[in-house]
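F.,

This is the one I mentioned.
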């Protein structure tokens, strides 16, 4: 099979997979870890913002060309709009945009007033370790030629990573047969 065929399938079905698994994911806890990592897109660096809870459950992700206050606010709004419970604490690294973004979201009422922003790099080890799996897939794919293609492909990587982590209700971690049956079920494929 040609690699372009696989790429076209990923571009078509990765966003659909990500959308459909969202209904079946377990709810994350209220202690969030937020961080970003670098990804090469069309020869320049982009930032992959990611949020996980303290147990490593994926909350949200977003690809952005910039790493600034606007991108941080946009990402936090996206994470809060996904149906996850409002966080009681958000742990971030030393990036100065996060405390400002959290303060502005608290002032506007999007984020609860009692939510704490905690700057503790060692408490972010959960998300730093979670970055490894996504970065490994990105490295194996030999890079991206466009931001849209990168975003769609990363949606597929994140969706499959959530399934493998056991983040889907009724699908245990490490049970490859149940994971395959779950994917067949959400796409209506008879196995």
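My design for it:
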């Amino acid at each position: 099979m040609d690699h372009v065929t696989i790429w076209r399938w990923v571009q078509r079905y990765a966003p659909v997979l990500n959308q459909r698994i969202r209904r079946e994911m377990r709810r994350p806890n209220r202690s969030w870890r937020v961080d970003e990592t670098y990804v090469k897109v069309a020869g320049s660096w982009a930032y992959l913002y990611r949020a996980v809870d303290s147990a490593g459950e994926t909350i949200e992700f977003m690809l952005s060309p910039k790493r600034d206050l606007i991108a941080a606010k946009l990402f936090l709004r996206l994470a809060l709009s996904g149906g996850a419970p409002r966080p009681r604490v958000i742990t971030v690294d030393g990036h100065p945009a996060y405390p400002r973004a959290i303060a502005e979201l608290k002032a506007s009422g999007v984020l609860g007033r009692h939510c704490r922003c905690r700057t503790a790099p060692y408490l972010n080890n959960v998300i730093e370790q979670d970055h490894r799996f996504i970065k490994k897939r990105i490295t194996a794919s030999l890079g991206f030629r466009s931001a849209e293609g990168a975003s769609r492909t990363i949606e597929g990587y994140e969706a499959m990573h959530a399934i493998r982590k056991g983040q889907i209700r009724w699908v245990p971690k490490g049970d490859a047969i149940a994971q395959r049956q779950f994917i067949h079920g959400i796409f209506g494929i008879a196995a």
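DSSP finds six helices and five strands in the chain.

Talk soon.
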